[in-house]
Amino acid sequence: MASAHHHILGHELGSPIVSAGTVEHLDAIMGIEESSFSAPWTRRMFEVELTDNPFARFLTAHIENADQGPKGPLDLVGYVCFWVVFEELRMMNLAVATHVRRRGIGRWLLQQALTMGREEGARRALLEVRASNHPAVALYECAGFSRSGVRTKYYTKPVEDAVLMELEL
Ligand SMILES: CC(C)(COP(=O)(O)OP(=O)(O)OC[C@H]1O[C@@H](n2cnc3c(N)ncnc32)[C@H](O)[C@@H]1OP(=O)(O)O)[C@@H](O)C(=O)NCCC(=O)NCCS
Questions:
Q1: Which domains, from first to last, does the chain contain?
Q2: Is 154 a catalytic residue?
Q3: What distance in Å separates the CA atoms of residue 115 and residue 143, rounded to the nearest whole number?
């Protein structure tokens, strides 16, 4: 009871609530995924990460629904999927719903992931990002990541280079 109350207080102050992703979140996740990427992950890909991959970690961000207020159910507005493979944290997916972008939710999810990875023993974080994805590159640079290389024509739909980034944890 006390901790639930604490969460609600934190929520009223504007910070999202974090939860471990489950298959029950798949509908909401797919809605965000399909409006965020030109080559979105499929539902099956998320299912594998949520249920079958022992290296995968999945966090979801939830905030108050603008119409229903503090007593209504919370909306899932973002998620992060990452792998912790021994000393390495590999960012696999991160997205925030379009209507709540630029409010710190992406930064907050990324920090939650980095903290969790560090606690599990990861010593460096790695990721790839489309070269044209300026919002994401800016977010990762803000979090301390630096560019470590380029993979030419790594992506399809459209074909594009990947920028490799890494961070010592
Ligand atoms: C990238 C993404 C997750 C950022 O989420 P967000 O909640 O909007 O980001 P935040 O509000 O936490 O932004 C944190 C910082 O990142 C940078 N940033 C985020 N969006 C930006 C934008 N559109 N333009 C420039 N910088 C941006 C800023 O430095 C920002 O700090 P500031 O708002 O104090 O200036 C979101 O834009 C998204 O879901 N994009 C589509 C999916 C995607 O590209 N995912 C990453 C794949 S590698």
A1: 2-123 (3.40.630.30)
A2: no
A3: 12
79 labelled catalytic: no
Nearest CA to ligand 1 atom 4: 106
How far away, in angstroms, is 103 Cα from ligand 1 center? 9
Element holding 141 (H helix, E strand): helix 134-142
Whether the CB of 103 sits within 6 Å of ligand 1: yes
Q: Is the pLDDT of residue 126 over 90?
A: yes
10 Å CB burial of residue 29 (0-12, 13-18, 19+) is buried
- The protein residue whose alpha carbon is closest to atom 23 in ligand 1 is 135
- What pLDDT is attached to residue 72? 85
Alpha-carbon 111 to chain mean position? 9
**142 φ/ψ angles, rounded to the nearest 5 degrees:** -60, -35
Q: Please tell me if the CB atom of residue 96 comes closer than 6 angstroms to any atom of ligand 1.
A: yes
Predicted TM-score (pTM) of this structure: 0.92
Q: Nearest Cα to 77, choosing from 156, 20, 18?
A: 18
> Is residue 102 within 6 Å of ligand 1 at its C-beta?
yes
- Give the up-direction half-sphere exposure of residue 155: CA atoms within 13 A in the CB hemisphere: 19
